[in-house]
Design brief:
heterodimer; A: 86 residues; alpha+beta; GMP Synthetase, Chain A, domain 3; three-stranded mixed sheet; 3 strands; 27% helix; 26% strand; B: 133 residues; Glutaredoxin; 5 helices; 13% strand
């Protein structure tokens, strides 16, 4: 997937979150090291915040803390896929 | 040899989580946080006014490794209340602003609904710090 020696970009993180979590919509900002992701997904429904954040972290595995130095997350449960207007 | 040390660290972390009602794993110390996210979480706990124990994960990379195997959480800081993993900086911030954190800590909701405090630059706070590692 992403080469480990290439700096991460907000665009890359957005694409990977949206590809990794079915129906997710992500807005990502960041400077190549510190990122902030606001993620909406129907998959978050009925999950605890911890479980929601884990779904996002799991997209990146061991890259969080490494290549992706820091990733702040805010999650929102989306009522249904039809709200996905991205 | 090193496996023994990792096992010892693992057991020390589990004991610390069990024995400290409010325990923060962080980068640096409450007086000298080494990361903005740790500083922000400390500022929130100080604002709530609950005594908490803190463990600096920086002295040995194995502390973070073993902690992550326990919490299944990749980032630092990590807050535990009554032996349960509560979350990192983002979740603690959200819980503070909604008042859930104050409820979980069993304190009056004096600041609920207000934005989370920014970390104070150098404010010595009355904390009970217990660094077991």
């Amino acid at each position: 997937m992403a080469a480990t020696d290439v700096p991460a970009t907000p665009e890359e993180l957005k694409e990977r979150i949206e590809a990794g979590i079915p129906g997710a919509t992500a807005a990502v900002t960041g400077d190549g090291h510190h990122f902030n992701a606001v993620v909406s997904a129907a998959a978050f429904k009925d999950l605890s915040r911890i479980a929601q954040h884990r779904l996002v972290y799991d997209v990146f595995g061991g890259e969080v803390g490494g290549r992706i130095h820091a990733l702040s997350i805010q999650t929102k449960a989306k009522a249904s896929e039809t709200e996905n207007i991205a | 040899m090193s496996d023994d040390v990792s096992t010892q660290i693992h057991e020390a972390i589990e004991s610390a989580i069990t024995e400290n009602p409010v325990l923060l794993f962080m980068k640096g110390t409450p007086d000298q946080p080494m990361c903005g996210f740790s500083a922000r979480t400390v500022a929130i706990l100080q604002s709530v006014g609950t005594p908490f124990a803190a463990v600096n994960i920086l002295p040995d990379p194995r502390i973070r490794q073993e902690l992550s195997t326990i919490s299944n959480w990749p980032t630092i800081p990590q807050l535990f209340i009554d032996g349960e993993f509560v979350g990192g900086c983002d979740i603690v911030t959200e819980m503070y602003e909604s008042g859930e954190l104050q409820t979980a800590l069993g304190v009056e909701d004096a600041n609920g609904g207000e934005p989370a405090p920014e970390p104070a630059a150098q404010e010595p706070a009355p904390l009970s710090i217990e660094n077991r590692l």
